[in-house]
C-alpha cells in the first residue's frame, strides 16, 4: 500500500489507486467520467481532528456547506452530529432535506433576502450571522412582522491579513464582509434596542485556505477585545463564533493540525478568562477538500511547439478553482505504469484559454488513460456550472468496500428543464 500524501484513505494498492477499499478505475468504468469520488472515512477523520482539539470544551462545529453541499455529504456530517453554516435559502432547503435539525443551523452571508429570512425564521434556525446595520433593521422588521424573535450574532471584521489569495480573504477592511471593528459596539447597541431580535453571539471569518497560525491568534485577540467592550456595555454574549476552518495541503502546503491550532487558541482563551465560553466554528474546506477526487479520462494528447496539451474530459465547469484562483490541484494516474513522462498542460474541452486544470505537469499518459484530480472535495462540485451546456458530473461516496452513487450525471434534458420554447 502506498498512501497519497495529504489524502488519508486514498492509496495505491499495487498500481491501482483506491479510495478506502474501492478501486477508482472500477468506479470510472461503472459510472463514467468526470466523476467525483469522496471518502467518508476521510471526512470523519478530518472532523475528528477538530473534535480532539475541543475535548472538554463547549464547541459546536457547523460545517460550512458551501464547500460541498451534495446531500450525501451533508448526511455524513448531520449523522456525525454537526451543525451547519448556510448562506442561502437554497442551502437551507438542502440541509433540511439531508436531515439537519433547524436549531443547529446558522445563517451567514451579506445579502440575505426578506424571503430567506422569513423561511429561516419559520423553520426555526439557531442564529443569524448579521453582516451590516442595514441587515439588522430588515431582520428586525421581518421577525417582528412574523411574531418571531431572531437570534443574532454580528459578524465583525477583525481587519487581520490572513495571507491567502485575495479572492478568499474576507476579514480585511476593504472586504464587503462584516461590520467594521470600530462600528461594532454601536451596532450591538442598536441590535439590543431593536424589536424582534435577541443578541446571542459574535462572529468573524478572516478568510479561507489559511496555512499560518498567526492570523488566527491575532483575530482571536481582536475579537476578545470586542467581547469585553460589548459585555462591558451590558450586552451579554452567549457564544463566540470563530468562522471558517483551516487550509489544506494542495501542493505541499503545511497548515497546522486542527487540534494543534485549537490548543494554542484555547491557551489564549484560558489566559484571558474565556476558556469555558460556548464556541462555534464553521469549517468547510478542511472537512471535505482532501476527502474528494475528480476522476477524468484523457481524450487527446496534442503536442505543440511551445506546449504539449493533455486534453481531459473534466473542465473548468467541473473544477473551477484553477481558472478562478490559479489554484493548484495535484493530478495522478489511476493506474501507475512505467511509461516515459512528458510535460503537459492539462486542459478541459471548454472553449476558453482559462480552461486549464494543471500547468506543466509531468505525466506518462496516452489517450484513454484515466487520471484523478486531487483535493477536489471542496469548492468543486458546489461551484460547478453548466457552461458549454456540459452536464454536471456524477458523484460517488465510498464507505469501506461500498460505493454509493449520491448524484447521477446530469443529462441535457435535466439542463433544459424549466426552459420554454418561444411560440411558433
Ligand atoms: N464561514 C464563512 C462565513 C465563510 O465565508 C466561509 C468561506 C467559511 C465559513 C468556510 O471557510 P473554509 O473552512 O472552507 O475555509 N471558493 C473558494 C473558497 C471561498 C470561501 C468562502 N467562504 C475556493 O475554492 O478556494
Written overview of the protein:
The protein is of the alpha/beta class. The chain folds into two domains: 2-39 and 289-416, Lyase, Ornithine Decarboxylase, Chain A, domain 1 (Beta Barrel), CATH 2.40.37; 108-283, TIM Barrel. It is 28% helix and 25% strand. The protein contains twelve helices and 22 strands. The strands form three sheets. Strands 5, 15, 16, 17, 18, 19, 20, 21 and 22 form a nine-stranded mixed β-sheet that branches. Strands 6-7-8-9-10-12-13-14 form an eight-stranded parallel β-barrel. Strands 1-2-3-4 form a four-stranded antiparallel β-sheet. Strand 1 and strand 2 (10-13) form a beta hairpin. Residues 64, 67, 85, 108, 168, 170, 205, 208-209, 243-245, 282-286, 321, 325, 379 line the site of ligand LLP.
The kinds of small molecule bound in this structure are: ligand LLP
Assign the CATH topology of the largest domain.
TIM Barrel
Structural class: alpha/beta
The low-confidence parts are none
Q: How many individual domains? A: 2
- Termini separation: 63 Å
Q: What spatial form do the alpha-carbon principal axes imply?
A: globular
User: Helical residue percent?
Assistant: 25-40%
CATH architecture name of the largest domain: Alpha-Beta Barrel
Strand content: 25-35%
Amino acid at each position: 500500500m502506498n498512501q497519497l500524501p495529504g489524502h488519508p484513505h486514498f492509496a495505491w494498492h499495487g498500481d491501482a489507486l483506491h479510495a478506502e477499499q474501492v478501486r477508482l478505475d472500477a468506479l470510472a468504468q461503472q459510472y463514467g467520467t468526470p466523476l467525483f469520488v469522496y471518502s467518508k472515512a476521510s471526512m470523519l477523520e478530518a472532523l475528528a481532528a477538530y473534535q480532539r482539539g475541543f475535548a472538554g470544551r463547549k464547541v459546536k462545529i457547523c460545517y460550512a456547506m458551501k464547500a460541498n453541499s451534495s446531500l450525501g455529504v451533508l448526511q455524513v456530517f448531520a449523522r456525525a452530529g454537526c451543525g451547519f453554516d448556510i448562506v442561502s435559502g437554497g442551502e437551507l432547503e438542502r440541509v433540511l432535506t439531508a436531515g439537519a435539525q433547524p436549531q443547529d443551523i446558522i445563517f451567514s452571508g451579506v445579502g440575505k433576502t426578506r424571503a430567506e429570512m422569513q423561511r429561516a425564521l419559520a423553520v426555526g434556525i439557531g442564529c443569524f450571522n448579521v453582516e451590516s446595520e442595514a441587515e439588522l433593521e430588515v431582520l428586525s422588521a421581518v421577525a417582528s412582522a412574523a411574531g418571531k424573535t431572531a437570534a443574532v450574532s454580528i459578524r465583525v471584521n477583525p481587519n487581520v491579513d490572513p495571507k491567502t489569495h485575495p479572492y478568499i480573504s474576507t476579514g480585511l477592511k476593504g472586504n464587503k464582509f462584516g461590520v467594521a471593528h470600530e462600528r461594532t459596539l454601536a451596532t450591538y447597541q442598536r441590535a439590543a434596542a431593536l424589536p424582534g431580535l435577541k443578541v446571542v453571539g459574535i462572529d468573524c471569518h478572516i478568510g479561507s485556505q489559511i496555512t499560518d497560525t498567526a492570523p488566527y491568534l491575532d483575530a482571536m485577540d481582536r475579537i476578545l477585545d470586542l467581547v469585553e467592550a460589548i459585555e462591558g456595555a451590558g450586552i451579554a454574549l452567549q457564544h463566540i463564533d470563530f468562522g471558517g476552518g483551516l487550509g489544506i495541503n494542495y501542493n505541499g502546503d503545511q497548515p497546522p493540525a486542527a487540534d494543534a491550532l485549537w490548543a494554542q487558541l484555547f491557551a489564549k482563551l484560558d489566559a484571558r478568562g474565556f476558556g469555558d465560553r460556548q464556541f462555534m466554528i464553521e469549517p468547510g474546506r478542511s472537512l471535505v477538500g482532501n476527502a474528494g477526487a475528480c476522476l477524468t479520462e484523457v481524450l487527446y494528447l496534442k503536442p505543440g511547439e511551445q506546449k504539449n496539451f493533455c486534453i481531459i474530459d473534466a473542465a473548468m465547469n467541473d473544477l473551477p478553482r484553477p481558472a478562478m484562483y490559479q489554484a493548484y490541484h495535484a493530478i495522478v494516474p489511476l493506474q501507475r505504469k512505467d511509461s516515459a513522462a512528458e510535460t503537459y498542460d492539462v486542459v478541459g474541452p471548454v472553449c476558453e484559454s482559462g480552461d486549464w486544470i494543471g500547468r506543466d505537469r509531468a505525466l506518462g499518459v496516452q489517450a484513454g488513460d484515466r487520471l484523478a484530480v486531487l483535493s477536489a472535495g471542496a469548492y468543486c462540485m458546489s461551484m460547478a456550472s453548466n457552461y458549454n451546456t456540459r452536464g454536471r458530473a456524477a458523484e460517488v461516496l465510498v464507505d469501506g468496500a461500498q460505493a454509493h452513487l449520491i448524484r447521477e450525471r446530469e443529462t441535457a434534458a435535466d439542463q433544459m428543464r424549466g426552459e420554454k420554447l418561444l411560440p411558433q
